[in-house]
Amino acid sequence: MTNQLDLFEDGRDVMLRNDVLTALEQRNAAAGREALQRLVAEYPDDALVPTLETLVCVLEAPVHEHFATHTALRDTCEAWCLPSMPAARRAFGDAPGMAWCLPLWRAVARAASQLPFHREMPEWHSAPLWMRAGEWTAACDSIKRIGSWRRIPAPLGLDGRDGLPAPGA
User: At what angle are helices 49-60 and 29-42 packed, to 10 degrees?
Assistant: First the structure.
């Protein structure tokens, strides 16, 4: 004898999970939190709860302010963006999950846009963040703002032959 699935008895958890996912897709933090609380109240051991909690928390704490330091940028990315990627992929699937994260990377890149390039922390610059967001023009613009020895005026640069300063420098 096989057991038949009873949608009224066996589908409530799916419905509650879908309510959270719908709110997340709409990027509605308040509705996501409310739906997640209903899911946890009825199914506290649901395997997707930690994943959904991560994503709701990301929406509840958006990045608006510019980062003052590279360390603050790194800490935010490590605590906020990086955990959201596997959570979004688990909740929505690979491609849709990565697409869900794009606005997060855009917000972080925007907030990092005034930070100069730091040689010891090159990954914590707006250029690679814009790349993660799929914003190639913004990434190129960000790269162009990185100070470089190639953009040093000729009188201050090297003559290129022997590594010595150019004549008259």
Answer: 160
Cβ atoms of 166 and 155 within 8 Å: the answer is yes
The single residue listed with the structure tokens 């509705």 is 31
Contact 166, 154 (CB under 8 A): yes
Tokens of 2: 């096989």
pLDDT digits (tens, 9 = 90+) for 38-90: 999 999 999 999 999 999 999 999 998 999 999 999 999 998 888 999 999 99
Pair (67, 133) in one structural domain: yes
CA distance 75 to 84: 14
Residue 89 lies in a domain: yes
Structural domain that includes position 56: 10-61
* pLDDT tens sequence across 110-155: 999 999 988 888 888 999 999 999 999 999 999 888 877 565 455 5
Residues 6+ apart with CB under 8 A from 111: 63, 64, 65, 66, 67, 73
Rounded to an integer, what distance in angstroms lies between the CA atom of residue 150 and that of residue 73? 27
- Does residue 162 lie in a domain region? no
**Same-domain pairing of 96 and 131:** yes
What's the total number of domains in the chain? 2
